[in-house]
From TrEMBL:
<keyword id="KW-0067">ATP-binding</keyword>
<dbReference type="InterPro" id="IPR018109">
    <property type="entry name" value="Folylpolyglutamate_synth_CS"/>
</dbReference>
<dbReference type="Pfam" id="PF02875">
    <property type="entry name" value="Mur_ligase_C"/>
</dbReference>
<dbReference type="InterPro" id="IPR004101">
    <property type="entry name" value="Mur_ligase_C"/>
</dbReference>
<keyword id="KW-0460">Magnesium</keyword>
<keyword id="KW-0479">Metal-binding</keyword>
<comment type="function">
    <text>Functions in two distinct reactions of the de novo folate biosynthetic pathway. Catalyzes the addition of a glutamate residue to dihydropteroate (7,8-dihydropteroate or H2Pte) to form dihydrofolate (7,8-dihydrofolate monoglutamate or H2Pte-Glu). Also catalyzes successive additions of L-glutamate to tetrahydrofolate or 10-formyltetrahydrofolate or 5,10-methylenetetrahydrofolate, leading to folylpolyglutamate derivatives.</text>
</comment>
<dbReference type="GO" id="GO:0004326">
    <property type="term" value="F:tetrahydrofolylpolyglutamate synthase activity"/>
</dbReference>
<comment type="similarity">
    <text>Belongs to the folylpolyglutamate synthase family.</text>
</comment>
<dbReference type="GO" id="GO:0046656">
    <property type="term" value="P:folic acid biosynthetic process"/>
</dbReference>
<keyword id="KW-0547">Nucleotide-binding</keyword>
<dbReference type="InterPro" id="IPR001645">
    <property type="entry name" value="Folylpolyglutamate_synth"/>
</dbReference>
<comment type="pathway">
    <text>Cofactor biosynthesis; tetrahydrofolate biosynthesis; 7,8-dihydrofolate from 2-amino-4-hydroxy-6-hydroxymethyl-7,8-dihydropteridine diphosphate and 4-aminobenzoate: step 2/2.</text>
</comment>
<dbReference type="Pfam" id="PF08245">
    <property type="entry name" value="Mur_ligase_M"/>
</dbReference>
<dbReference type="GO" id="GO:0046654">
    <property type="term" value="P:tetrahydrofolate biosynthetic process"/>
</dbReference>
<dbReference type="InterPro" id="IPR013221">
    <property type="entry name" value="Mur_ligase_cen"/>
</dbReference>
<dbReference type="InterPro" id="IPR036615">
    <property type="entry name" value="Mur_ligase_C_dom_sf"/>
</dbReference>
């Protein structure tokens, strides 16, 4: 292995490989299969794999799976996207501390190899970096791999694993319509493309339209389904998470991640773990995983950094990367729950990508929010302008104004809150969340 390169070396290579294809996204598997064959088919040497698709909840479900498996003593690889601060976060290898992404030297060596083997052929950024991740996973021993779909399912680069241990589809909603289709039915069918004949599939909470589409696709290919609310359930009861399926009932601690939607995400993960019979796991390990799980920018309370230092005593600062209407609903529900237990003014700081439904995301917050400050996502030319976001917020019935920076938005929001210590929520984009965590994580 090469000596430790400079911290910028991987960034230089990653920037270079973005130029191998004219499009950032071009859903197809041909280029991926070509490069994997040239690399010796690392996708055929992976450990038992949990393959996860869905619109919302993929990352949290991945985090529960990893935490519970590691609590049970298993070595776990994981692949998630996008990253928040550094690309390295996407790839985590078994045997490393649970918070440690792949190191710079390993990443550079793998990127160099994949770039060389690709030989300048057209390939998208996500395709070549996913092939690189498979190469890393194949070369390091692990008991399990948690593999998160990048977008969609059927034509997603990760969908080259022939026989995963379990497939999972978390809640499906409208997002990435320009690539996946304009309806829940079309999007759900695309995500159901990860289902495999004979492989158990865990289906999280869905709309009637989404569930019907998934059930139809599963019947067509012969994938056995385990459906939330039908084959398994999870709910809160007297400060506990109660999980039940045909094998019995588990009385577990509530997940460490806040929000009522995390009960559902945890339930989906528990069902998948119980179906992965090659990785037996006791109730104690599941309980420990729920208590110790970590997943940044999902209703994360910030406790350090310059933004926190700018708060008055007893004020709260929360961060969430949700960015579509479904995410808006679950985050609004969480804020309402917080207000019920500890009422205080709620100020939102919002930045969003231009491809997102800003009005749909903001609408659930009507009646909950005192004021919205809108911002541009730092260093992101493809974000909605603060002025456009102000218009969307006002159409959603929210009082809103724009600010030139996150810091100024916080200052103005605090001024509007008055004497009572407020609850501040920064939200609307994982890219905005990443910019915040860079200095406040």
């Amino acid at each position: 292995m090469s000596s430790e390169p400079t911290a910028e070396a991987s960034d230089i290579i990653l920037e270079r490989v973005t130029k191998l294809h004219s499009k950032l996204i071009d859903l197809s598997l041909d280029r991926t299969f070509r490069l994997l064959a040239a690399l010796g088919h690392p996708e055929r040497a992976l450990p038992p794999t949990f393959h996860i698709a869905g619109t919302n909840g993929k990352g949290s479900t991945s985090a529960y799976l990893r935490a519970c498996l590691e609590a049970g003593g298993y070595g776990v690889h994981s692949y998630t996207s996008p990253h928040l601060v550094r690309f390295h976060e996407r790839i985590r290898l078994a045997g490393r501390p649970k918070s440690a992404p792949i190191n710079e030297a390993e990443l550079v060596d793998l990127l160099d190899e994949c770039e060389r083997v690709n030989g300048g052929e057209p390939i998208t950024f996500f395709e070549i970096t996913t092939c690189m991740a498979f190469l890393a996973f194949a070369r390091h021993r692990a008991d399990a791999l948690i593999l998160e779909v990048g977008m969609g399912g059927k034509l997603d680069t990760t969908n080259v694993v022939d026989h995963p241990a379990v497939t999972i589809i978390t809640p499906v909603d409208l997002d990435h319509q320009q690539f996946l289709g304009e309806t829940i039915d079309l999007i759900a069918r695309e995500k159901a493309g990860i289902l495999k004949r004979g492989v158990p599939a865990v289906i999280g909470p869905q709309t009637d339209e989404g569930r019907a589409a998934i059930e139809e696709e599963a019947a067509r290919i012969g994938a056995p389904l385990f459906i939330h609310g039908q084959d398994f359930s999870a709910h809160e009861e007297q400060g506990h998470l109660v999980y039940q399926d045909e094998h019995g009932l588990l009385d577990l601690p509530l997940p460490r991640l806040p929000g009522r939607h995390q009960i559902d995400n945890a339930g989906v993960a528990i069902c998948a773990l119980r179906l992965a019979t090659m990785l037996p796991l006791g109730e104690d390990a599941i309980a420990r995983g729920l208590r110790e799980v970590e997943w940044p920018a999902r209703l994360q309370r910030l406790t350090r950094g310059p933004l926190v230092a700018a708060l008055p005593p007893h004020a709260e600062l929360w961060l969430d990367g949700g960015h579509n209407p479904s995410a808006g609903r679950v985050v609004a529900h969480a804020m309402a729950d917080f207000a019920q237990g500890n009422p205080r003014p709620l100020i939102m700081i919002v930045g969003m990508k231009e491809t997102k439904d800003a009005g749909g995301f903001l609408a659930p917050f009507k009646g909950l929010v005192s004021h919205v400050e809108t911002v541009a996502i730092p260093d992101d030319p493809a974000c909605l302008s603060p002025e456009t976001l102000v218009e969307a917020a006002r159409r959603a019935g929210l009082d809103a104004s724009s600010a030139p920076t996150i810091e100024e938005a916080l200052k103005r929001g605090l001024a509007r809150a008055g004497a009572e210590p407020p609850r501040i929520l920064i939200c609307g984009s994982l890219y905005l969340a990443g910019a915040v965590l860079k200095d406040n994580g």
